[in-house]
Amino acid sequence: MVKRSRVHRIVNWRSPIGSPIYNVPDEILLTIFSVNTISSGEQLTMNEYALPVAPITTIRLSSQVCRHWRELILGCPALWRATTLNLNELSLSRSDNWAKEVLSRTKKALIAVRVVFKEDRSPQAMISFFFKVLDEEWPRIQHLEASVDTRAGDYDDDRWLSIFRPTENLRSISLHFPMDATPKPFLSTTSVLFSDHAPSLRSISIRHMPFQLSAVPWLSQLTELRLAGQFAPGSILASLSATPSLETFEILYPRDMVPPNNSNAHLNWSKVNLPKLKCLITRGPLEACLMLLDQIIAPPECGLDFGSHTYSAEESLSPAVGALARYCEGYFKTYNPPLIELTLCPSQFGFHTLRQSDIPPFDIRIENLNGFPSMSCLFKQFVNCRFSGASRFRFDAENGITFLLTDPHFSKFISLLSSVRRLETLAKSLVYLSQIPTQSDVAFFPSLEWVRVARGRGIYPESVPQMIDFLLWLKSSGGSIQSIDIGVQTGLEDRGVDLSPLEQFSGLNVQWSSISDREEYICGSGTPERLNFLGDPMLLENRYEPPPIPSFPASRYVFADSMFHPSFASSTSTPAFAYSTAPPPFAYSAFPREPLRLLSRSRDEQPRRRRRRS
User: Fold this and answer.
1) Of 166, 169, 170, 220, nearest to 193 (Cα)?
2) Where does the secretion signal sit in this chain (predicted)?
3) Cβ distance 165 to 144 under 8 Å?
4) CA separation for the pair 403, 490 (Å, rounded)
5) pLDDT tens, residue by residue, 285-344
6) How far apart are CA 194 and CA 183, in angstroms?
7) What does the alpha-carbon distance between residue 207 and residue 145 come to, in Å, rounded to a whole number?
8) What is the per-residue DSSP string for 203-238?
9) Percentage helix, strand, coil, to 5, in the chain?
10) Degrees (nearest 5) of the Cα angle 505, 507, 512?
């Protein structure tokens, strides 16, 4: 007689009456199951973090708990549809049996299909099953997301052309291909996407696939349009004129795209009004990106993610970037982002706000491949902005940006940061601030309370005069700070940093991190030697280097002295200061001066004693 499997016994096991979970009404159970199978729903995105357990695995395991749960789950095709047919999670390495079973359990429900073809990790069974679903199940596909991340492999299947058939139910489609590796069927067809019929479509994202971008009927209902490839700005604007409901627009031009010959051609184009636009994303040559920005009329609350490159000199760059001012002023009149970040180097300009879920981003990154002769025209775009909500300012500026020292628009930009309370910067970046001419009617950083100069690699001996110059400049402009963070003590000692000259700033709280704690010193207290980190021999002699932490369960290790709570020694809980695996070299524990000892050993782990030979 064949012995029944464990799963068979579990599925046919009758639930105990006393267990509360088995008495939950079916409606509530189905709600719980559906919440556990949420993957992406309306908005599929290639950047989504993978869940610890795939939704399809969750629903499969739930169906194996007992007979009632199995009947309930198998009788609800919407649950299987909601899990998304993620072909990368359906064990398609050898066969498509399980994938076919999942597809059959969806019955006639609408489905979402997702697949990422990766180099050396896309078995033929997965490729074949995807094209089979695309061809045979096209009428009931509601969300489609396919990405080819490799040029290796044969993806030139004619069944790609299924997307040129009409569709009643498709709500979102995302097709991403490598540049110069578009499947051949797309290159040889002149058909129109969806045969001009996709009444439910709301989101489309296509990268490096040529198609006719004309004023087709389904454009009018789109809320999201993302494109990447060689699209002429004029044709894009013509299509955007038919998208009054658009909320997100993204265009990624190839880096080697040749800009339009006539830089003034856009002046003859009609403006495009997008009253519902919430976020505009552009990448590519500066001239092409700015043509779009100049012709699009967006609401003031529209966010901007602008990344571009150029070879232009200051004379030709200045009139071009004027289109940015309108977006800057409208955004900062509507939103008050708490963090503003400015990153500068001789060939790059970066302005960023803190990413938040409730407001759109505002990021500008411009690279001048010949190096910036000046950034004055870029700072000029912000002179009418209000940064009243910014309480934090991150400022990183590389060496060699000499034109900042005499740029009045840079000074004006800094003067707008009147509400900033926390400054995070590098000591070398302070030079550009302390060189700004003070003005009797302008106070720089009047609300500043705390400065951290330990970003990046920390501070060095040459950082000390830079910090002093900044504090003196701040004082002369009517400002002052309460605290300054100088980083980690070990780094200061290794570099031989002497910060005792800060003693002159009475009341200044200097903070740093030691091996196990945070320390501070109030300047003017009379013991400035505490700020001398030149490497005291006593400190170097007593410096502790922790022993290597074994890779066995850390819960069995505690510090030898009984200075901790007994629960730390419990084998059922892991101390906060213990490592579950060996840490990287020179990673210090929270309590470094006590050795580790083994709490208990099993019989198998007892050390073997060698017998003495007689």
Assistant:
1) 166
2) none
3) no
4) 36
5) 888 888 889 899 999 999 999 999 887 766 667 766 778 999 999 999 999 999 999 999
6) 18
7) 12
8) EEEEES-----S--GGGGG-SEEEEES---HHHHHH
9) 35, 20, 45
10) 85
- Secondary structure of 484-498 as H, E, C letters: EEEEEHHHHHHHCEE
Contact by Cβ (8 Å): 361, 335: no
Q: What is the pairing mode between strands 272-273 and 296-297?
A: parallel
pTM of the complete model: 0.74
**Is the CB of residue 559 less than 8 Å from the CB of residue 596?**
yes
Q: Where in the chain is the domain with CATH 3.30.420?
A: 308-416
Low-confidence ranges of the chain (pLDDT < 70): 1-19, 36-55, 64, 77-84, 91-96, 119-122, 151-153, 258-268, 313-316, 319-320, 455-457, 535-614
Token reading at 43: 């908005």
User: What's at 566, amino acid-wise?
Assistant: P
- Strands 518-522, 509-513: parallel, antiparallel or unpaired by DSSP? antiparallel
Q: Cα(413)–Cα(300) distance, rounded to whole angstroms?
A: 21
Maximal C-alpha separation, the chain? 104
Report whether 478 contacts 446 (CB < 8 A): yes
What pLDDT, on the 0 to 100 scale, is given for residue 491? 75
Q: What is the pLDDT of residues 568-582, one digit of tens each?
A: 333 333 333 333 333
CA–CA distance, 513 with 520 (Å, rounded to integer): 9
If 0-12 CB within 10 Å is exposed, 13-18 middle and 19+ buried, where does residue 470 land?
Answer: buried
Distance of CA 573 to the CA centre of its chain: 33
The two three-digit tokens of residue 440, written as one number: 């009797």
Beta-carbon contacts of 89 under 8 Å, excluding residues fewer than 6 positions away, are 54, 56, 57
At which residue do the structure tokens 């789109």 appear?
222
Cα separation, 221 vs 244, in Å, equals 8
Q: Locate all alpha helices (DSSP H) within 264-305, ordered by sequence.
A: 286-295
In this structure, what token pair is assigned to residue 375?
Answer: 């950034």
Strand partners, 232: none
Give how far Cα 596 sits from Cα of 514, 553, 588, Å.
Answer: 21, 13, 13
Supply angle C-alpha 14, 20, 23, rounded to 5: 65
What are the two backbone dihedrals, phi and then psi, of residue 151, each rounded to the nearest 5 degrees? Answer: -90, -10
State the Cα torsion 393-398-399-404 to the nearest 10°: -50
* Cβ partners under 8 Å of residue 219, min gap 6: 239, 242, 243
Query: Which structure tokens are listed for 19?
Result: 């267990």
Task: Report the alpha-carbon distance of residue 544 to residue 581 in Å, rounded.
Answer: 20
Which residue in the block uniquely carries the two structure tokens 């700015």? 290
Partners of 392 in the beta sheet?
Answer: 339, 422
Q: What angle do CA 337, 341, 343 make, to 5 degrees?
A: 160
Residue in 562, 595, 558 with CA at minimum distance from that of residue 573: 558
What distance in Å separates the CA atoms of residue 503 and residue 114, rounded to the nearest whole number? 62
Residue 166 corresponds to which tokens in the numbers above? 């009409």
* Domain at 308-416, CATH from 1.25.40, 3.30.420, 1.10.3470, 1.20.120: 3.30.420
